[in-house]
Design goal:
Elements: E1 4-8, E2 12-18, E3 25-31, E4 40-42, E5 62-65, E6 68-69, E7 75-77, E8 88-90, E9 102-107, E10 111-117
Antiparallel strand pairs: 1-9, 2-8, 2-10, 3-9, 4-8, 5-6, 5-7
């Protein structure tokens, strides 16, 4: 049986770290896309890797200032080494408002899945589309 992960309402992307040195994500089965772009399985996650299947945003290092995340912060935190070079899934950013959306990600090996969550969504200011200024604490 292939390892699977089922997710409801995605506002993040998935990075897989295979326990063995070969294998990775083999398929993504989505329901409730409502006409939005399908997910894309990509390889070699790292700095400047594309984030979404429907937007040109890239993953980069996190910037912080004295009060938390900031686009112009002077403390830079690199992407974790254990995520670099692995397969990942680029979901449609526009699918975030599809109430019936779900996805199943399948790997051909036993793997650890990491969910990268945009912690700005519905932050203290109640915005669903905002700058980094909402500053929710990182998820553990």
């Amino acid at each position: 049986m292939l390892p699977k992960i089922s997710i409801l309402y995605l506002v993040f992307m998935i990075v897989t770290c295979p326990i063995s040195l070969q294998g990775g994500i083999t398929e993504v089965n989505e329901l409730g896309l409502g006409g939005d772009a399908a997910a894309i399985i990509a390889s070699n996650f790292g700095k400047d890797a594309l984030s979404f299947s429907d937007r040109p945003h890239q993953h980069n290092c996190a910037a912080f200032n004295g009060s938390g995340p900031a686009t112009g912060g002077n403390t830079i935190v690199a992407l974790p080494e254990y995520l670099l070079g692995n397969d990942y899934v680029r979901f449609a950013n526009n699918a975030r408002d599809q109430a019936t959306y779900s996805a199943e990600v399948v790997s051909d090996v036993t793997a650890h899945f990491y969910l990268l969550v945009d912690n700005r969504i519905d932050g203290p200011r109640g915005k669903t589309s905002s700058s980094n200024a909402t500053c929710l604490p990182p998820l553990a």
